């Protein structure tokens, strides 16, 4: 019990860890609140609790938006260090990553302007800026899915090659100093990419929901479904923070 509490404390002491916890609680509250608020006719008290949880979720979402006001420099630093991905061996992964960084970098100022407009700090309409930020978020998620699929394809080929080399080594075809690749490591990396795809797809479904009406299923998700998709993505994010302990 004490070890679990200490792990949670360490998680909350880091900015990224705290953001992931807040995100998980935010979407979890929306999931439960969405379910309870639908029981208006059956149970008034449950409906009241559901509405309270939805308001709590909205406040946590606003909290994360404010905290992201300070993410521009860290994102710029990451984009600068990655550059054009000279260290990436695969050109497809490299350029997808570069485009993802561009979309992520542009996302922050668009969201900041939208937030400032809603807070009446600047005199512009926030609707179009929220739309720009949602589109950029969706583009980033879609590119992330493509990147993960590309990496999975490359890892699968590498795993086949390593497995083949391992069989050849067993027959003594290769010199003794050659060793087969780490199959377990490759499989763990592939499982990590699969989780990334599932997380991005869950978030992308919500991003489409927040697009203007008429675009696919925009505006058609009930609160509980938005909460469910966000909770799936958030839990995966928490798992990925400690990949070594889960795979």
Automatic annotation (TrEMBL):
Give me the segments passing through the membrane.
Answer: 129-153
Would I find Glycoprotein among this entry's keywords? no
Asked if the Swiss-Prot or TrEMBL record annotates the protein with the keyword Secreted, the reply is no
- Keywords assigned by UniProt, alphabetized: Membrane, Peroxisome, Transmembrane, Transmembrane helix
Q: Which InterPro entries match?
A: PEX11, PEX11C_met
One GO term under biological process is: peroxisome fission
The UniProt entry's GO CC annotations, sorted and at most eight, read: peroxisomal membrane
What is the name of the protein in this document? Peroxisomal biogenesis factor 11 gamma
Q: Which organism is it from?
A: Mastacembelus armatus (zig-zag eel)
């Amino acid at each position: 019990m004490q070890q679990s509490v200490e792990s949670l404390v360490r998680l909350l002491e880091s900015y990224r860890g705290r953001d992931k916890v807040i995100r998980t609680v935010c979407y979890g509250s929306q999931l439960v609140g969405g379910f309870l608020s639908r029981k208006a006719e059956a149970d008034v008290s449950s409906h009241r609790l559901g509405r309270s949880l939805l308001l709590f979720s909205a406040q946590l979402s606003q909290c994360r938006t404010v905290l992201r006001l300070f993410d521009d420099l860290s994102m710029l630093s990451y984009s600068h260090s990655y550059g054009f991905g000279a260290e990436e061996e695969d050109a497809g992964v490299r350029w997808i990553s570069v485009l993802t960084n561009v979309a992520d970098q542009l996302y922050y100022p668009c969201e900041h302007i939208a937030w400032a407009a809603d807070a009446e700090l600047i005199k512009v309409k926030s609707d179009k800026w929220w739309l720009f930020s949602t589109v950029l978020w969706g583009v980033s998620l879609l590119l992330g899915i493509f990147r993960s699929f590309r990496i999975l394809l490359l890892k699968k080929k590498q795993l086949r090659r390593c497995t083949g080399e391992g069989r050849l080594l067993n027959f003594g075809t290769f010199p003794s100093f050659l060793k087969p690749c780490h199959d377990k490591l490759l499989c763990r990396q592939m499982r990590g990419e699969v989780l990334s795809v599932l997380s991005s797809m869950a978030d992308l479904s919500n991003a489409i929901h927040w697009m203007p009406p008429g675009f696919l299923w925009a505006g058609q998700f009930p609160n509980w479904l938005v909460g469910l998709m966000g909770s799936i993505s958030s839990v995966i994010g928490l798992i990925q923070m400690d990949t070594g302990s889960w795979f």
